[in-house]
Amino acid sequence: MDFRLHYPTTIAEAVAARRSTGGSYLCGGTVLLVDHYNGKRIAQDLVSLERIEELHRIDEDEETISIGSACSFSQIEKHPAVKRYLGALYLSAREIGGPQIRNRGSIGGNYASASPASDMIAPILVLDPEIVMEDDLIVRFVFRKDEKVRSAFRKVGKRTALAVSSVSIAVSNRDGVYRVAVGSCAPKVVLCSRTSEVLSRGEGIERAKDTLMGEISPIDDRWGSAEYRRAVVRNLLERLVEEVSR
């Protein structure tokens, strides 16, 4: 297939180009083009976000950290405010893929792919940012700067950073109110609301682990068995809850 590339320089131009062509947004290409090479049908018109400067910025003020949707994992990992305030997001950015993927892949693309193995989705769910949209384009993620929020992330795979996650989990805690999200254990990354409520009510880690088993639906595949995933996520939940509760 021959692609037609469009290079808008503003958000408005990008939205207009996608509307008029019925095409797809292209950022790092680490998901879209892999899908193409694996035989999935994608749009012939690709609207590149490469030249839209606003989407590549991380802006910080006294209350928020605003991360443009085209910001790379490397860019996120290296930002000191992300490490200080958004621990789970920092840890996931550090562990995604190899150096090439971290330099090209974007937070917006990772989130929009909606893959169950997308490592950034669980941290985004537990940190609960405002997601700013322009029509159907993710513009930025606006996170609160809150010293009281502690968060952590872990992934388990057949290798370390280069592996697709067999299990990923993120947990946040603010004054005893917890949020738990799990990846690679259901058709999509799951915000585990009942498990979060059990932890927030102080009902204990064993009760939380049992509740979590009812909120996930892992399968057997080449990355791990359902039984293995359940065992791993129980252990990781306990470890991360302890970590964010210190």
Q: Which fold name corresponds to the CATH topology of the domain at 161-246? A: Enolase-like, domain 1
Poorly predicted regions are none
For the report, how would you describe the main beta sheet?
4 strands, antiparallel
Average pLDDT: 94
Structural class: alpha+beta
CATH homologous superfamily grouping of the domain at 161-246: CO dehydrogenase flavoprotein, C-terminal domain
Beta-strand content: 15-25%
Shape: globular
Number of helices: 11
Q: Care to count the β-strands?
A: 11
**Main sheet strand line-up:** 4-5-7-6
Considering DSSP H and I runs of 4 or more, what fraction of the residues is helical?
A: 25-40%
- CATH architect. name of the domain at 161-246: 2-Layer Sandwich
